[in-house]
Protein 1
Amino acid sequence: MRAAPEPPGDVFARHRIDAVRPGALERIARRLRADGLVTFTGVVSRTDVLTLASRIMTVTGHRDSDSDGLTTIRDTRHHAHRAGFAGLGNGALEPHTDRSGNPCPPRLMMLVCGQEADVGGECVLVDGRAVHAGLTTVSREAVTAFSQPRTAYFGAGDGHPSQVFTVHADHHVALRLRQDGLARFSPTVQPYLPQLRAAITRHQVLLPVAPGEGYLLDNRRWLHARTAFTGERLCWRALGQPRFPMPEGFVPEPVAAAAPALAGR
């Protein structure tokens, strides 16, 4: 029987850290190493977002970012039907990791709400560790297939061949995924795509965020998405590399059960 989804308020409260209290950076680093997710409140302006992000990461600019490195996420009314630009429209986004078509995607992603939508626009989060565990339970063959090198290609002509799960020498697993028109999968993994998508759906968590609220996640563990919306929804996003050491990806659940100390390193 499928468990009832965790209430959004519980998810936000369980991962919340007061980002302005002394010692916040150390608590954020510990939480990211353990859970890959932090939520926070009180970040009410673009300046606040950049200040907080700069304490946590080296902010990395990219195609859609502004001169300060932050990306303004809103419906531009010009990008919705262009491949790879859906985030700048008002439609729903499928769960994905950011910059999956880059050889080395940013490790951290921060999103802060500046203005709520009139209707919809809720954030959707999916723990990749739970997806990996759930998929392993259903089909170890699927996990093995999605871990084979170069079984996926993410991005346009300048994209990157990779795989959904990258297994490192220390048994940590890093996640990379997109599910739009710029994702292509080899014939060896295509039969398992329905199982992967079902596992992602099972572990989705709806996370409404009000103005001044946001989240910070490990971009190699968590998938994020968005529901469709109407209105003038506005968010700011920061991408970058952490200013503190983090293990590469997450410890799969069977390994974590045998060696729980690894998860906190």
Note: The CA atoms of residues 62 and 69 lie 7 Å apart.
Protein 2
Amino acid sequence: MRTVAASERTGAADLQLGMALTFVAGAINAGGFLAVGQYTSHMSGIFSSMADNLVLGAFDLVLLGLAGFLPFVAGAGCSAILINWGKRRHLESQYALPLMLEAILLLGFGLFGWLLRSSSTFAPIAIPLLCFIMGLQNATVTKISDARIRTTHVTGIVTDIGIEIGKLCYWNRSERAPKIIADRSKLRLLTFLLSSFFMGGVTGAIGFNHGGFLFSLPLALLLLLLAGPALAGDILAHDRRVKTNREDGKQNSSHPGS
């Protein structure tokens, strides 16, 4: 668990984190639709609907699309700020910071939704909030994996799977030309991610259908478990540095002539 969101990355840690976050994304996307009546990670669909509604003169729906699109962009930007801030300070938790923020926002989504008890009342707040969370998460895992993994962008995952399957089926007849070889490890990774998103979607649909907004709390707990070890390590390291500096200060003050 300590290595999943650590600053030092491995292929296994990227896979574990990617599958966990893809599961969360699928659960939020499918379950959020049941909760507030809109998918919150489909920026292609939201942007296309904005263009359609602009032509049709449905300017209120254009504004509704902007209420999802702009928070998604803001979430991605927030992730970049947090990660770069952590990198500048050489923090072990540089990637855990946006995950912790996502967990806090999911907790807020679940608790406020449960308190209001009305999807129509909460939807104007919930949709931008969920889009912000999706942008935050997708940008985080994109930076962690150097854009190899996307957690909310299933279109890209399916496209890459199709490319690798095409390369796998390609018949290399000529011995002179460079061989077309499929990246089997990438295909396996993409298949895992797609399966994880689907399982998250099924789980989220069942959870939000039966548990309502409170089902977001277990998802927030999962993110806390992922982000917690790295953050705790940085807090303990900071406390040790403060304690060492204090002890050095006391020694210097007791030996002013040294």
Note: The chain has a mean pLDDT of 84.
